[in-house]
Amino acid sequence: MMAKLFRAVIMGPPGSGKGTISERIAQRFGLKHLSSGDFLRENIAANTEAGVLAKTYIERGLMVPDHVMTRLLLPRLEEMTCHSWLMDGFPCTLAQAKALNSTCDLDLVISLNIPYETLKDRLSDRWIHPASGRVYNMGFNPPRVQGRDDLSGEPLIQHDDDQPEALVARLRHYKDVAKPVIDLYKSKGILHMFSGTETDRIWPYINSLLSTKIPSRPETDTQHI
Ligand code: G5P
Predict the structure, then answer these.
(1) CA of residue 202 to ligand 1 center, whole Å
(2) In terms of pTM, does the model score above 0.90?
(3) How confident is the model over 112-156, as pLDDT tens digits?
(4) Which residue lies with its CA nearest to atom 3 of ligand 1?
(5) Which residue CA neighbors atom 27 of ligand 1 most closely?
(6) Ligand 1 atom nearest to CA at 125
(7) What ipTM score was computed for the predicted complex, to two decimals?
(8) From ligand 1's centre to the CA of 207, what distance in Å?
(9) Are 142 and 37 in contact (CB under 8 A)?
């Protein structure tokens, strides 16, 4: 059992490897992995009011409005009084960061800085099941049957926003909204930026950093909600 609860955030543009690295951190250090994208997909599947609204944005490759995100996520974080956690994908705007700040003190923020060309290659291979928000990558996480969702068998689509032309604007938008968040966490002295083109090369540095902050655990059960 950890002596002190640990609260961390991982931020990065779409396709930067947040989910992949979060799973590794959760497994190695026993933090609960909370994912804004997964949480939205759960709400879409459950047809909640917020889920129905969020779906209209996600389908178009757009960010969900701040008030929807904070209303969904903050109560969930407030329930986690006894757990150390890693939040993946939230906050990603200054309004979200300020709302989170009023709820808890973060110990550490990981920011992934991945070159545009790398993101473009990963995202242009990305297909989505619109009804559930499930995401596939034809190179690294393909569906069992090509072009079909694993669970429903329904056809997968590709976002116009994942086409190379639209990606420039989308990634620039991310950069614009994330910059003040990065500056905020830098000024608090808790920001750690990692750059590179391969998750496997970035991971050892993140692992080393976290090893100085939290004890690793031998068990392998990933804590994911
Ligand atoms: P999500 O689900 O958080 P995104 O778009 O932010 O979606 P995504 O695509 O899931 O993020 P990621 O988590 O950063 O990317 O990266 P990942 O899934 O680990 O890796 C991406 C792909 O690259 C995978 O196929 C992986 O296997 C592969 N990969 C990883 N590492 C490597 C590598 O080293 N080499 C190679 N070759 N491949 C690799 O959010 C979904 C939507 O919800 C909304 C937004 O609409 C978002 O689009 N949303 C929010 N809206 C507003 N505010 C928020 N805070 C929001 N959070 C979510």
Answers:
(1) 16
(2) no
(3) 999 988 998 888 788 888 788 788 888 778 999 999 999 999 999
(4) 37
(5) 140
(6) 25
(7) 0.96
(8) 20
(9) no
